Amino acid sequence: MYGKQDDLCIAIQLSLIGCQKFFQEGKYRNFRAPDYLTPQGLDRKKLA
Predict the structure, then answer these.
(1) For the residues of 7-24, what is the DSSP string, one character each?
(2) What per-residue string of b and e applies to 3-30 under the rule 16 or more CB within 10 Å gives b?
(3) Fewer CB within a 10 Å sphere, N or C end of the chain?
(4) Residue 40 and residue 38: Cα distance in Å, rounded?
């Protein structure tokens, strides 16, 4: 049982690190949805 819990913790940590890198690294910007930061918060605009 303990080995499975360790694997789960490692998988969760790796997925969180992957998500963090995806949204922080500029080289992945083309793969993300266009979000625009405004004084009121994030404003999602659709491309026309």
Answers:
(1) HHHHHHHHHHHHHHHHHH
(2) eeeeeeeeeeeeeeeeeeeeeeeeeeee
(3) C
(4) 5
23 in Cβ contact with 32 (< 8 Å)? yes
Residues 2-47 have pLDDT tens digits of 677 888 999 999 999 998 998 888 888 788 776 666 667 666 665 5
> First and final CA of the chain: distance in angstroms?
52
pLDDT for residue 30: 82
Distances (CA, A) of 36 to 21, 28, 32, 45: 19, 16, 12, 7
